[in-house]
Design brief:
The complex is a heteropentamer. By secondary structure, chain A is an all-alpha fold. Chain A is 74% helix and 3% strand. In chain A, helix 2 crosses helix 15 (287-313), helix 5 (70-88) packs across helix 12 (231-257) and helix 6 (92-116) packs antiparallel against helix 12 (231-257). Chain D has helices at residues 20-37, 60-72, 85-98, 128-139, 154-166, 186-196, 216-221, 224-228, 239-242, 265-278, 284-303, 309-316; strands spanning 6-13, 43-44, 47-55, 78-80, 101-104, 121-123, 144-151, 171-178, 202-208, 230-234, 252-255, 320-323, 326-330, 337-338, 341-347, 356-363. In chain D, helix 1 packs parallel to helix 11 (284-303) and helix 4 (128-139) crosses helix 5 (154-166). Classes of the chains: A mainly alpha, B alpha/beta, C alpha/beta, D alpha/beta, E mainly alpha. The complex binds adenosine-5'-triphosphate (2 copies) and magnesium ion (2 copies). Chain C: It comes from Hydrogenophaga crocea.
Chain lengths: 365, 245, 253, 376, 328
């Protein structure tokens, strides 16, 4: 049953399975396990990034397309909700209209980009998407009448999802502290359900015959053509599916933040974060998205705290405090980039699976 | 038999987790042509790559003209006078035929520095090289690429040629040219180690022969001997000559 | 029946295939010979759609294919094995063949079933691996196969497509002598199934002589001879331009 | 809820990111100010002041979450910050949700105390209107013809809109908006020159620019003054940015703060302390941070350390407090601190790397008619 | 000469063509001249900062997203050198100014080159041939580099004023030509000539292209491809350092983020140029420079998108850039 749900694409490594189970349970009960606004924010962001990274992995890991325009679709989703909630007010209708509108726009753009990708070669495609993404970012900050420009849009959500809404009068007394059962709590679980569904659907897609063709195209598109697969169609479809998922992830982001601006959903930094998460987790594995998102976002969110602590420890040592201040957290994040590419060439998932298969062959022998 | 120019003693090679060569012993006499035969997967290509330093021998010793080259880097080995024609030909497909040749002529800064007689000789043997001189090498036909790969190895004199299946994909007439060329090279004091599937081709050329199976040399001796002994052929190569020329 | 009429392609100033008109009957094996660079592979490329013709047309059973892109021609029944091995290098041997089986079954656009639920496709792939003697290596990565096995896999993929027209481009090049018969037997079996049209580019004259019903000769992109194997091989153009034999010697042989 | 023995102040600012240098100044100023205001004890009404520093990285979404976390997790009583206007705008509703005070410093956008304002928002920093009004005072003369060059973003457009409101006598003939990050100003300047060069009167290019690269160097290279008699006019800036001013001796404008200008004991103290600690003068944003500290401590002293929000709001509305820039007053209607600005003229002094602004006249709050833009 | 006969003039002709088309649109000839000269000079500065990347990205096929850090580093080194040689920089003699300028350039190139060496060893070496990892790891390197610059020189902007005699403009009628831009033209053309000579007159260019396709084969031919790659990377970084000096002087301020700011711009330039072609990069840079100035004058809103529009248009015309070098 579970195996069916996971499309028979199991973790294939005991430690990996345990790790994944822990993370999923952790996310499922995050409001109770880690009370506090910051912790919940991190957990919600992890969820959103799982959805986003999974969609990108379809493109990168499975189809072998390097695109820098993925945040564009993420941004379209977020702006979709933001703009329609601003224009139509805090109603459910506004959310639906916003999400559908965003999906439609993403569909058109991804079709265009997908078709364009056939004209030019891989690196050129990557660079074009980089340029298009930066143009889109500029456009979003220029159209300030619609998008709020650089200031972005702050908006309200339907009563049920807004922080003011209380499910119960008093806080729920969890084992780790009080948990406010308010609109944020409900929004978190809305996110959790959506992301779980998106993940499972994506898992099914990559394990379908279609997903297999994508992998073949990644390996040798010329050969795939000669077998009778129209790579145009497959690449474009892959682009479209990835874009729609990213758009949905963007919608979720907007629901969670109740704010959206160009830097929040469109910046190149986010694109890099996605790339790094894919690599940390393991390209072309989907499960990597879960591990990568948790590792990266927790690191990103708590690195400054860690450094504050480390800086205090090394006080008096020459030079170190200059490097260990929270102000230089990016230095360490950069180091994380370098080291994770070094040490996890196949990502955490790949590494654990390799180990499992080595053990398997040894036991077999 | 003269002192071998190249000698492999108990060479083992691993590729990743796989153990491919299991103690190869091979002697390649100077100024003669040694054929390396064996069925698919026997380890011929791996042997050549190990000599070239492209895989590292995990055990054993390789000597070239008395010098130990087992641990040397590929460019060093090449610079001591070894040319290599890989199985997949290693054509630089973005570069023109001319540029491919220019790179192979290590001593030359421009093509004016290349011995024109030698070039003419190559053009005679492989007219297509001349015809497509300025074309991107990637656009050549399969056989023409093979010709280019061999041409590169002989554009300058070398003491040792390692050639992996040069005849595949070549038309019979060109094979004849190549046979003549190898004979000429031999006469010009070049030692050749040639991997071949085409036994007919091998028989016309080889002075010596070594047969590999499963990562070892299972037979070595004079070519003439093997060419005569059909039973041995059948045993070593699975060759029933009736089916072939 | 596969037919090319006036098929021509020009690369810059160079005419690689020049107005070749030829028809190939089902149930026959036609060998295509010619010197290196004669245009044999290019001719295949034109038929299977890897490159676009400058002029002329390709028809299969009366259906015009000239304007179709390669994948659609494959679906129309043209199958192709490549001269320079062309596989999915990081996929397993079985997956390489299964991709072809899946293509033939038209299951590529199935999003919501899990691939391994299509047991029939996997079984079919395994049957083909058996026929090309690669079943032992089904799990190996294609890139780690020795050259000869890669050639076999190339042929296996073509078999899996089960097309109306089989185009082999030097299937035995680089294959060891004892393995060659495996491939030749396969081709013979195909011939026995009288419905298949087989085209074979091959430089080994013994193979050509043994298998072919008919030989056509390309030279500088032109069709210069066409006919019974023995008579074509004996013709001076083949003897001189291709085999490089002096006429006197040929008489002596 | 605030009977604890601590007063927790969250300072949320762009410690990292492009505005890092500004944010650092603010924080230095804030800490110096708190120390000064509490006489070095960091205690008010028997309670210890604890500053929690948070880094919004210049990102509105981050700032928003941090503010919520500061109020909820860290139990901050008051928050100060942020550096950038977009971040501030995203934060405003959070203060309202948590019913806690957000003291905005130094984000400038008018809408913070304008249409996006809520009653929990106070601002010690100057707003765009104040900048514009002050500069208008310096530039608004009957015979002046002005072309404006501004950032093509909310900051620039806001500022130009405000300055148009305040320019009554001079004529603004052209507005040129260029994107932040413009690398070649030639084209934009040529457009301005085209519009200005044949105008009668004193011609000015008035620049409202934040971020690097800046257009000042290009204006100097093109020798517009020599060729067309077009002069540059612009407001103050941080010291490294005023290096370019050295090429424009005699240039006039209005600024928010320069360490040599205000004459009062607090400023003297701050300048001396800053020199002592950092071997250099305090800058633009240091003064801002200091003022914010003064505002908070003054209010807390009045409530005797009570951090009850309603009480604080009541206290702060209309409250006057001393700062390095003299006395400021939170206007009751929109909680904007009314403050002096300084009309300056640049002198090239070889002793300083930057162009030194010399005081022409202090522009008192009452000299500027700053409109109330919120919809209270 | 067959070279001239075979040479593809069309992309080069685009530059004068664009300038000619702009004349009627701009109207005033003096404005047009000012814009054109500014655009060409800007193009050459962009070419200098992009030239290193043509080597690294175009020829070596290393997707170096960290190239910008060498640019920033070069600029900051120049600030320090200028600080030390301030007396010469503010002297009223061109030659004395050069005494400050030349060491600043050399020091910037040396420091950037040295960092390039480290960068190649530690960051790039493990990921040759793997584009995705190159992007990430070089991006990581760039972040680290940028932060280290902040540690050393502080997080804020620093002024890098022009040497005295390079300030101001030459006036030709109503048109003005900034003096500094003329210097940029001279330096740019020198860099261009040096690169063309090295890449076309020696085997270096061929070897790099061959090495990218098949390292093993190049080594089998007897070349130490590794040393070559290191050398080229160092050269590319040094050029970026030089570019940083030029760019910093042009802006007269330097910022730790200045490298990241120009990243997309230089990518666009070498993409237009055709990845690895020096001439292509020059053409690309000139087109970008001119386009930015003309659209900036004619329609500032459009200027925001002019680079990207230019790139897309060029790629529709030639999907592999104006002078494709490699089949990538
Ligand atoms: N990269 C690799 N990874 C794993 N195994 C490999 C790799 N390359 C070769 N092998 C294995 O090494 C063995 C020897 O291969 P090799 O290529 O040397 O054979 P060969 O004698 O040259 O065969 P052929 O005649 O087909 O070219 C084979 O079993 C092959 O599967
Ligand atoms: N894409 C192309 N561009 C330019 N020339 C090409 C292209 N493809 C093939 N050619 C040229 O066309 C000619 C025919 O090539 P083709 O590959 O068809 O030869 P072939 O008969 O298959 O030879 P071989 O027996 O060597 O495989 C060759 O001279 C080749 O250089
Ligand atoms: Mg081999
Ligand atoms: Mg061929």
């Amino acid at each position: 049953m579970l195996s069916r749900l996971l499309s028979h694409d199991l973790p294939r490594s005991r430690p990996l399975a345990v790790l994944l189970a822990l993370l999923v349970l952790g996310l499922a009960f995050a409001p109770f396990l880690f009370p506090g606004v910051k912790a919940l924010n991190v957990a919600a962001k992890v969820l959103i990034f799982i959805a986003l990274v999974v969609s990108f992995d379809l493109l990168l890991g499975y189809t072998g397309i390097v695109s820098f325009a993925h945040t564009m679709f993420f941004g379209i989703g977020a702006y979709g909700i933001a703009i329609s909630a601003t224009a139509l007010g805090p109603t459910w209708w506004a959310l639906i209209v916003g999400a559908l509108g965003a999906l439609l726009l993403s569909l058109l753009l991804s079709l265009l980009i997908g078709l364009f990708s056939l004209r030019v070669r891989a690196i050129f495609f990557a660079m074009i998407t980089l340029a298009v993404a930066s143009a889109f970012l500029t456009l979003a900050s220029q159209l300030s009448d619609i998008t709020g420009g650089e200031d972005g849009l702050t908006f309200r959500l339907p009563e049920l999802l807004s922080p003011g809404f209380a499910l119960m009068e008093d806080d729920f007394q969890g084992p780790f502290g009080p948990v406010a059962l308010n609109g944020r709590f409900i929004t978190y679980y809305l996110l959790f359900v959506c992301v779980t569904a998106m993940f499972l659907v994506m898992l099914r897609i990559v394990n379908s015959p279609f997903g297999r063709v994508l992998q073949a195209i990644r390996e040798n598109d010329f050969r795939a053509e000669a077998l009778g697969y129209r790579t145009v169609v497959y690449r474009t479809l892959s682009n479209v599916i990835a874009a729609s998922f990213a758009t949905l992830a963007g919608c979720l982001l907007a629901l969670w933040l109740r704010y959206n601006g160009p830097d929040t959903s469109l910046s190149f930094e986010i694109m890099l974060d996605i790339l790094l998460i894919v690599v940390i987790g393991g390209m072309g594995t989907l499960y990597g998205a879960i591990i990568g998102s948790v590792v990266f976002l927790v690191a990103q969110s708590y690195l400054q705290d860690l450094l504050r602590w480390a800086g205090a420890l090394t006080e008096g040592v020459p030079l170190l405090p200059a490097l260990l201040t929270p102000d230089r957290w990016l230095l360490w994040l950069g180091l994380l980039f370098v080291l994770s590419v070094y040490h996890f060439p196949t990502g955490v998932v790949g590494k654990l699976r390799e180990r499992a298969s080595l053990k398997g062959t040894k036991e077999g022998a | 038999m003269s002192e071998p120019l190249l000698k492999l003693e108990g060479v083992h090679t691993h590729i990743g987790a796989y153990h491919i060569l299991h103690g190869v012993d091979l002697a390649v006499p100077a100024n003669e042509l040694t054929m390396l035969l064996g069925r698919n997967g026997a380890g011929k290509t791996t042997t050549l790559r190990t000599i070239m330093g492209l895989w590292k021998a995990s055990q054993g010793r390789i000597t070239l003209a008395g010098q130990d080259i087992t641990a040397r880097a590929t460019p060093d080995i090449a610079q001591s006078g070894v040319a290599y024609v890989p199985e997949n030909m290693g054509i630089f497909s973005d570069l023109s035929v001319k540029e491919n040749m220019l790179l192979a002529a290590r001593g030359a800064r421009t093509l004016d520095d290349v011995d024109t007689k030698r070039l003419e000789w190559i053009f005679d043997m492989f007219p297509a090289m001349k015809k497509f001189w300025l074309h991107p090498a990637g656009k050549l036909s399969g056989g023409q690429k093979q010709m280019l790969a061999v041409s590169r190895a002989i554009v300058e004199p070398r003491q040792l040629l390692l050639i992996d299946e040069p005849s595949k994909g070549l038309a019979p007439a060109i094979i004849q040219n190549m046979i003549a060329a190898f004979k000429a090279l031999k006469a010009a004091q070049t030692t050749i180690l040639l991997v071949e599937q085409n036994f007919n081709f091998a028989r016309q050329l080889g002075d010596h022969v070594a047969v590999m199976d499963d990562g070892r040399v299972v037979h070595s001796g004079a070519m003439a001997e093997l060419a005569e002994d059909t039973a041995l052929q059948a045993r070593l190569l699975g060759l029933s000559l009736g089916a072939h020329q | 029946m596969l037919q090319t009429s006036n098929l021509t392609v020009r690369f810059g100033g160079h005419v690689a295939v020049n107005a070749v008109s030829c028809a190939f009957e089902p149930g026959t094996l036609t060998a295509i010979v010619g010197p290196n660079g004669a245009g044999k592979t290019t001719y295949f490329n034109l038929i299977s759609g890897q490159i676009k013709a400058t002029a002329g047309s390709v028809t299969l059973d009366g259906r015009e294919l000239t304007k179709l892109p390669a994948p659609l021609r494959t679906r129309a029944g043209l199958g192709r094995a490549f001269q320079l091995t062309n596989l999915f290098p990081q996929l397993s041997v079985r997956e390489n063949v299964r991709m072809a089986v899946q293509a033939r079954a038209g299951a590529g656009l199935d999003f919501f079933r899990v691939w391994s639920d299509r047991k029939d496709l996997i079984e079919q792939a395994d049957r083909i691996l058996e026929t090309v003697a690669l079943i032992d290596k089904a799990e190996a990565r294609a890139a780690s196969l020795p050259h000869g096995d890669q050639r076999k896999l190339e042929v296996g993929i073509l078999m899996a497509l089960d097309p109306k027209v089989y185009m082999f481009d030097e299937p035995t090049a680089g294959m060891s002598v004892d393995e060659v018969p495996v491939i030749l037997n396969l081709i013979r079996q195909l011939k026995q199934d009288r419905s298949k049209t087989i085209l074979l580019v091959e430089h080994k004259m013994d193979v050509v002589r043994e298998l072919s019903d008919r030989i056509i000769v390309l030279h500088n992109g032109e069709l210069v001879a066409d006919g019974e194997p023995e008579s074509v091989i004996a013709s001076p153009v083949v003897q001189q331009a291709y085999l490089g034999v002096n006429p006197e010697e040929a008489v002596a042989a | 809820q605030s009977s604890k023995s601590e007063i927790r102040i969250a300072h949320i600012h762009s410690k990292t990111g492009p505005l890092e240098a500004y944010a650092k100044q603010t924080h230095t100023g804030l800490m110096m100010g708190l120390k000064y205001a509490t006489g070095g004890t960091m205690m008010v009404g028997g309670k210890k002041i604890v500053v929690i520093e948070k880094d919004d990285q210049g990102k509105p979404d981050v700032g928003k979450s941090l503010l919520a976390a500061a109020y909820a997790d860290d139990k901050a009583d008051i928050a100060i910050g942020p550096t950038a206007s977009p971040v501030a705008l995203a934060m405003l509703p959070v203060a309202e949700e948590y019913r806690k005070i957000l003291l905005v410093e130094p984000a400038v956008a008018d809408s913070i105390t304008g249409d996006k304002w809520n009653k929990y928002i106070f601002r010690t920093g100057r707003n765009s209107s104040q900048d514009a009004a002050a500069n208008a005072v310096a530039l608004d003369a009957p015979n002046n013809v002005i072309g404006v060059l501004a950032n093509d973003n909310a900051f620039g457009r806001d500022a130009v809109k405000a300055s148009k409101d305040f320019t009554k006598k001079a004529k603004i003939v052209h507005e040129e908006y260029l994107p932040v990050g413009t690398t070649d100003f030639t084209a934009g300047l040529l457009r301005l020159v085209d519009k200005l060069k044949d105008q009668p009167g004193n011609k000015y290019i008035s620049v409202v620019w934040s971020g690097a690269p800046t257009p000042f160097a290009k204006i100097a290279e093109m020798e517009l003054d020599k060729r067309y008699g077009i002069k540059l006019a612009t407001g103050g800036n941080i010291l490294p940015a005023m290096v370019a001013y050295k090429q424009f001796p005699g240039m006039e404008g209005a600024l928010y703060y320069y360490f040599g200008i205000p004459k009062n004991p607090i400023n003297e103290h701050m300048v001396a302390e800053h020199y002592r600690e950092f071997k250099q003068p305090p800058d633009f944003f240091t003064a801002g941070g200091f003022s914010a500290a003064m505002a908070v401590v003054t209010a807390l002293k009045k409530t005797n350390g009570d951090t009850n929000t309603d009480k604080l709001i009541q206290t702060m509305e209309g409250m006057s407090f001393d700062t390095p820039k003299g006395t400021m007053t939170f206007r009751k209607e929109d909680h904007q601190a009314m403050q002096s600005m300084y009309h300056f003229r640049i002198k090239a002094d070889p002793a300083f790397a930057w162009g030194v602004p010399e005081l022409v006249r202090e522009i008192k709050p009452e000299d500027m008619n700053i409109p109330i833009r919120n919809k209270r | 000469m067959s070279f001239l006969k075979d040479f593809d003039w069309r992309p080069v002709a685009l530059v004068p063509l664009l300038a000619a088309l702009a004349l009627p649109a701009v109207g005033s000839p003096s404005t047009w001249l000012t814009l054109t000269v500014a655009g060409l000079a800007m193009g050459l500065i962009v070419f200098i900062i992009a030239s290193g990347l043509t080597l690294v990205f175009g020829l070596m096929d290393v997707l170096n997203f960290g190239h910008g850090v060498f640019i920033a580093l070069g600029a900051f080194v120049a600030v320090s050198v200028f600080g030390g040689l301030n007396a010469y920089a503010i002297a009223d003699s061109f030659w004395l100014n050069l005494v400050a300028l030349v060491p600043a350039m050399l020091a910037a190139m040396a420091v950037a080159g040295a960092l390039g060496l480290v960068f190649e060893r530690v960051i790039v070496r493990p990921v040759y041939g793997q584009h995705l990892k190159q992007i990430l790891i070089t991006m990581g390197g760039m972040i680290i580099g940028e932060e280290l610059i902040k540690v050393i020189w502080g997080p804020g902007q620093l002024a890098l004023p022009l040497p005295e005699t390079l300030r101001g403009s030459f006036l030709i009628g109503d048109a003005s030509i900034e003096k500094y831009r003329l210097l940029a033209v001279a330096v740019g053309l020198t860099v261009f000539a040096a690169m063309v000579w090295t890449l076309n007159r020696t085997k270096v260019g061929l070897l790099i292209r061959a090495g990218v396709q098949d390292r093993e084969m190049v080594e089998s031919l007897g070349y130490r491809i590794h040393r070559l790659f290191v050398g080229v990377f160092v050269a590319g970084s040094a050029l970026a350092g030089l570019g940083g000096v030029m760019w910093g002087l042009y802006q007269q301020t330097v910022l730790p983020q200045m490298g990241a700011q120009v990243n997309v711009l230089i990518f666009i330039v070498i993409i237009i140029g055709g990845l690895g072609s020096t001439l292509g990069a020059l053409v690309g840079a000139l087109l970008v420079g001119l386009m930015a100035n003309y659209t900036g004058f004619l329609a500032p809103k459009v200027a925001l998108f002019s680079n990207i529009a230019l790139m897309v248009a060029i790629l529709l015309w030639r999907p592999q850039g104006v002078y494709p070098v490699a089949n990538r």
